[in-house]
Amino acid sequence: MAHLLSARVLRILPTLVLVAVLASSVVGCATRNVRHPISNDYLMKVDLVREVKGFTTVEREFDHPAVIAPVRLSNILRALEVEMNAEDGTIRQPAIHPAIVNRVAEELSEALEKASPSEEVAVKAVRKQRRLGVLDTKYLTTFLAYVKNDQLYLSLRRVDWPLPTGAETTKTKNVFPDPIRERKSMDFRVVTGEPIYFAGQQDLEIDWRNDAFENTFHLPGTSKGRKRRRQVLETSRIPQEERPREESGGMGIDQLTPEQLRALADLEEDRREGRITETAYQRQRRQLLRQR
Questions:
Q1: Are residues 119 and 264 in the same domain?
Q2: Which of 6, 165, 221, 252 lies 20 to 30 A from 228 at CA?
Q3: How many CA atoms lie within 13 A of 155 on its CB side?
């Protein structure tokens, strides 16, 4: 009997080895996120996140480490706003609640300075609000951030999201949903206006070096740090009365200088050939059309 079992094992051994090799190959090719904690307490968790395929880090070519002062980041974060649909209109509110802005700015500044060119920053921040003088209601804000081509990119995932009652938050644990680039966690859209540019429904491209962020900055129609309800009059992302003046100022083609026309043609060619991103194309086009 032992002899028969040994013979059977020898016959199927090549098959078992092949299955093991194929399985390890599949696992090795999978892409996963690896998180390195920078800050972790019961109200704030900040990670450096890199993509790993098999055993190799995916190169992202971010401009990291990046040095952005906390006070400038605070001015940027205070300016960010989102809109959410409601039954009788739209609610406009801060993307980062004023109560947590300074702490988030400090942690984000530290993380960007520690990040490698292949790591982006993942932030989870909890806001506590006392109700009835006894109970605390908790709200979660999450986003991803990185710097590239001298622009700060933010992908918002949760904005002041009410945590379920009994959600775990202690001085040693912070077990809340991670921000994931491919996953839309809440239904909202960003509000934009120079120098905060649209990079996706929940994504922003920010000219972080802009002089506007040396001081407190507000987009047109700001909610001034609070939720504000307005009636929807059109389907545009931003109501007409809140939009900045159109970049071209109503100029027709015949009003453009020869230099502007040549620059626009070159820009169109760069976009067509894939040498620049759509966001970069739109930003440079706006800048060209503003030149008089």
A1: no
A2: 165
A3: 16
Say if CB 198 and CB 204 are below 8 A apart.
yes
Tell me the residue range of the domain where 206 lies: 35-244
**Nearest Cα to 120, choosing from 205, 39, 50, 179?**
50
Specify the pTM: 0.72
String of b and e for 141-157 (b: at least 16 CB within 10 Å)?
bbbbbbbbeebbbbbbb
Residue for token pair 């530290």: 110
100: closest CA among 62, 141, 47, 71? 141
Assess whether 123 and 250 both reside in one domain: no
Q: Distance between CA atoms of 201 and 220, rounded to whole angstroms?
A: 18
Domain co-membership, 161 together with 202: yes
- The pLDDT score that the predictor gives to residue 132 is 66
189 and 268 within one domain: no
- Please report the DSSP string for 11-24 in residue order: HHHHHHHHHHHHHH
Residue 198 bridge partners (DSSP): 204
Query: Could you give the C-alpha distances from 198 to 2, 140, 280, 288, in angstroms and in order?
Result: 71, 23, 11, 18
Q: How many domains does the chain have?
A: 2
Do 129 and 191 belong to one domain? yes
The answer to whether residue 212 sits within a structural domain is: yes
Distance of CA 291 to the CA centre of its chain: 30
